[in-house]
Recover the amino acids of this structure.
């Protein structure tokens, strides 16, 4: 399963899902499915990378909350990477996404944070 | 003696008397008699002359007086001459003279005169009468002797006169007979000429009847045609003369009675002076004679009319209310007329049968010609109404006066497809359907309708024409079947094709799109042309146009596969060159190298107008500037389905706002008579000179390139334009979430132009889209309505979203967060809720404007 809005790569036991372009009500369902599907084989968790996301609105943020909940059910961790200079960072802050998942400025930091947390779990 | 002749002879005799009346006194005076004696003796002569001219007397009396006068002259002359024997000759002359009367009276007078005169005078004065003693002694005896001789003379005269008379009579009768024969022959000749000059049986029979009735002086005459029914009677009244037809109509047909039979079986002439007295009359029930009210007939004459072969054609009958009117002459005349009539009827029948045969052969030729022409008309087209009208016009008026064709439709209702009549009416009233032939149109699956033909006159239909009508109906049914089969095939193919074309073009903000599709005709086969418009995941737009080479359902189905594949690839965000490579592979998979297709795929960034295209052997897309100059996107590769490993390049161009991108298929630029380059030039000219409004532009281009040309190929055209955005942006948008990506692209374009920075742009887009998503959600779902979006700069930037329908309070999960976001991203938020709908007004100060204002 794939979506033109999602680039997937695996880093160790982690999945990095980079959301590209506009994430809106028209594609959130597919994006979430793709991420959940791909992340099933990664025991630790998923980094959702918003670095190359040009647009995301409440539908996208809701999707991220849902994703976090689904992953938690599967005992998987989730982090969101949002660069400090990204326009979408304001929305992440505004919606208090950091209360549900870790929000890091880069993918690497997000990966590191997840691994650390995962070890903590272990 | 005829009166006239007697008058003449009587005048001569009276004149002779007067001659004697003068001559005798003269002779007496010359002989020396005294005047008084002379007068006394000769006075008797003028006396008888006067008496003979006295018309009060009868003819016989005058004859007797005149005869006596002349004989007296002889007696006086004998006396005056003194008994000269020669004077007796005068007497004999006079006897001969009076024989002119051709009567016995003068002779009787002469005999009586001689006897009385000689006897009386011989007794009174014997010497003056007799010249021998024996006579003087017995004057009465000798007077008798004299009278006896006179009687002899008279008898001889009478006998010879009688004999002459007989000869004369015979001659006269012969002449009379000759005259009658001549009259008969002349009459018959005249009749022969009349009847032989005519070749119409009816006319012949009528003129025969008229003439025969006239020459026989009959009160009326009739010709009965000899038609014998199975009972051996019944004859058809054919023609009538001297009486109106009504006089006989009430009696039905004459019956084969004893009176009529000899005529109808051809035995010979029947002439009866009084038919009512005839033994054969009045034998037959029910009338026993003439029926009541029949014209009275006593004299009866009937003659059979026999043909040369001896066949009795009929009979001529004549009647007269008085008995004994018909003579042998009449009989002979009628027999002659009957012979003439027989010949004339024979000839007329021969002529009529020949004429009928010729007419029949002419008609047969005409029918064959009509059938041949009908086949041509029926196969000339596949339009049912057109061919059936053609058929109707072909047979009316050439064969029939009118032709009506009704067809039953699928629901069984009858529909009048064609109605042609020779009088220019569209259809005859139902009541006038006399002599009509109704032939069913029977197709493969049963009755299709009816073909009704006929003449306005109430003539029975000719069997040959019935056959013709049946044959025409049969052929028409086959044509209707074929046309309907074709129409069904065509409908199937067109339905398939149209299902493969976009049902409607998406209503996209900031741009206009128009398209045309013209199915090539005629023929069942549809082409493989298609076009499509797909929103890409990146918020752009993919345009595609293609043409599977070939026609028919296979081409159409392949086109459908290519179209769906292209759609899927574009929705998956594939680039044009990737799409082409995938389509090429798909086509090889589906059709080997049997089929190929030409395709253009363009992905347009509607924010920037940048377009990326790939062309697989398709005629180049065109971009028309606002000034009307046209440039071609000329880069292209091989059609898909030709080379298994073909690679497709990707090329870029820019579609500036207001410019028009035009994609089309080869139906617009190529046909049998136009080379491709000329076609491209013609198309470019048409696009350059077209009206600005996009739908009108398409119409103009179709008319200029195809016009009324009967294209065998399909033709598709799609035109797209990014509209220049006004300072006051007003958009009417469908309540469909798919409108959001292009709305954002448009709004980005507009916001960038308005001076918003990247952050502001993002936040305003989020605010606008949250409001719009809300509007879409409570406008009742997709396809249910429209909503309005408005943006303008009035110091600050203000946006408004207006939707109809009731406000639905968003659940805390979705709408609640959305509302929070909007409130965070704009300076002012107003939400008006009313029965008519909801208006969300947002206002935000832009940094650039603020700093600009500060600079100002």
């Amino acid at each position: 399963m794939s979506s033109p809005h999602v680039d997937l790569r695996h880093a160790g036991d982690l999945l990095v899902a980079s959301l590209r372009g506009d994430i809106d009500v028209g594609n959130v369902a597919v994006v979430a499915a793709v991420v959940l599907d791909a992340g099933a084989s990664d025991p630790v968790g998923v980094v959702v990378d918003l670095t190359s996301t040009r647009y995301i609105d409440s539908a996208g943020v809701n999707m991220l909350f849902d994703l976090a909940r689904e992953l938690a059910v599967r005992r998987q961790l989730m982090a969101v990477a949002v660069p400090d200079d990204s326009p979408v960072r304001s929305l992440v802050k505004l919606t208090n996404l950091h209360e549900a998942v870790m929000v890091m400025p880069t993918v690497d930091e997000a990966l590191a944070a997840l691994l650390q947390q995962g070890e903590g779990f272990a | 003696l005829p009166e006239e002749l007697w008058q003449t002879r009587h005048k001569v005799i009276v004149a002779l008397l007067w001659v004697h009346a003068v001559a005798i006194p003269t002779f007496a005076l010359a002989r020396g008699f005294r005047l008084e004696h002379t007068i006394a003796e000769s006075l008797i002569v003028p006396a008888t002359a006067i008496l003979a001219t006295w018309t009060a007397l009868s003819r016989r009396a005058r004859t007797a007086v005149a005869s006596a006068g002349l004989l007296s002259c002889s007696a006086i002359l004998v006396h005056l001459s003194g008994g000269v024997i020669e004077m007796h000759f005068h007497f004999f002359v006079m006897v001969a003279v009076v024989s002119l009367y051709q009567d016995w009276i003068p002779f009787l007078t002469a005999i009586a005169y001689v006897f009385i005169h000689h006897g009386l005078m011989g007794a009174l004065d014997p010497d003056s009468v007799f010249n021998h003693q024996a006579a003087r002694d017995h004057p009465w005896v000798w007077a008798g002797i004299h009278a006896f001789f006179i009687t002899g003379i008279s008898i001889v005269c009478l006998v010879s006169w009688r004999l002459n008379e007989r000869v004369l009579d015979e001659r006269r009768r012969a002449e009379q007979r000759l005259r009658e024969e001549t009259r008969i022959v002349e009459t018959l000749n005249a009749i022969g000429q009349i009847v032989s000059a005519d070749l119409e049986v009816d006319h012949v029979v009528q003129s025969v009847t008229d003439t025969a009735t006239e020459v026989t002086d009959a009160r009326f005459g009739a010709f009965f045609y000899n038609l014998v029914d199975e009972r051996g009677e019944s004859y058809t009244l054919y023609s009538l003369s001297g009486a109106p037809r009504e006089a006989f109509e009430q009696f039905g047909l004459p019956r084969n009675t004893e009176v009529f039979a000899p005529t109808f079986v051809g035995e010979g002439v029947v002439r009866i002076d009084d038919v009512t007295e005839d033994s054969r009359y009045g034998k037959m029930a029910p009338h026993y004679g003439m029926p009541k009210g029949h014209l009275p007939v006593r004299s009866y004459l009937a003659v059979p009319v026999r043909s040369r072969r001896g066949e009795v054609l009929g009979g001529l009958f004549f009647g007269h209310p008085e008995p004994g009117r018909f003579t042998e002459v009449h009989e002979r005349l009628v027999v002659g007329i009957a012979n003439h009539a027989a010949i004339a009827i024979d000839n007329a029948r021969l002529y009529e049968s020949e004429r009928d045969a010729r007419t029949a052969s002419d008609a047969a030729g005409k029918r064959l010609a009509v059938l041949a022409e009908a086949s041509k008309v029926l196969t000339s087209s596949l339009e049912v109404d057109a061919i059936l009208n053609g058929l109707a016009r072909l047979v009316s008026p050439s064969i029939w006066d009118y032709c009506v064709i009704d067809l039953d439709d699928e629901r069984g209702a009858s529909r009048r497809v064609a109605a042609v009549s020779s009088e220019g009416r569209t259809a005859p009233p139902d009541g006038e359907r006399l002599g009509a032939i109704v032939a069913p149109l029977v197709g493969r699956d049963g009755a299709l309708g009816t073909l009704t033909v006929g003449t306005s006159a109430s003539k029975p239909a000719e069997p040959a024409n019935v056959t013709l009508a049946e044959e025409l109906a049969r052929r028409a049914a086959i044509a209707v079947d074929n046309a309907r089969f074709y129409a069904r095939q065509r409908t199937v193919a067109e339905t398939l094709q149209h299902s493969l074309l976009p049902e409607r073009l998406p209503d996209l903000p900031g741009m206009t799109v128009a398209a045309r599709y013209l199915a090539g005709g005629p023929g069942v086969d549809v082409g493989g042309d298609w076009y499509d418009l797909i929103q890409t995941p990146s918020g752009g737009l993919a345009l595609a146009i293609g043409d599977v080479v070939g026609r028919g359902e296979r081409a159409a189905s392949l086109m459908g596969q290519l179209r769906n594949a292209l759609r899927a690839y574009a929705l998956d965000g594939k680039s044009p060159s990737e799409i082409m490579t995938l389509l090429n592979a798909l086509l090889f998979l589906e059709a080997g190298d049997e089929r190929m297709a030409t395709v253009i795929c363009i992905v347009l960034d509607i924010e920037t107008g940048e377009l990326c295209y790939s062309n697989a052997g398709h005629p180049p897309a065109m971009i028309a500037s606002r000034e009307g100059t046209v440039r071609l996107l000329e880069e292209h590769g091989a059609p898909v389905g030709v080379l298994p490993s073909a690679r497709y390049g990707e090329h870029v161009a820019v579609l500036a706002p207001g410019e028009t991108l035009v994609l089309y298929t080869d139906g617009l630029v190529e046909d049998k008579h136009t080379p491709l380059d000329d076609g491209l030039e013609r198309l470019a000219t048409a696009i350059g000179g077209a009206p600005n409004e996009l739908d009108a532009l398409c119409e103009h281009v179709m008319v200029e390139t195809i016009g009324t040309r009967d294209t065998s190929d399909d033709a598709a055209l799609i035109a797209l334009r990014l509209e220049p955005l006004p300072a006051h942006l007003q958009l009417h948008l469908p309540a469909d979430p798919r409108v959001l990506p292009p709305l954002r692209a448009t709004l980005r374009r507009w916001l960038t132009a308005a001076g918003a920075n990247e952050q502001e742009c993002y936040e305003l887009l989020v605010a606008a889209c949250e409001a719009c998503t809300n509007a879409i959600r409570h406008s009742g779902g997709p396809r249910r309505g429209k909503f309005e979006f408005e943006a303008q700069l009035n110091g600050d930037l203000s946006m408004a979203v207006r939707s109809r329908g009731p406000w639905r309070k968003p659940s805390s999960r979705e709408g609640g967060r959305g509302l929070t976001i909007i409130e965070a991203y704009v300076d002012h938020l107003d939400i008006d809720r009313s029965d008519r709908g909801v208006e969300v007004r947002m206002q935000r100060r832009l940094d650039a404007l603020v700093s600009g204002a500060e600079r100002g």
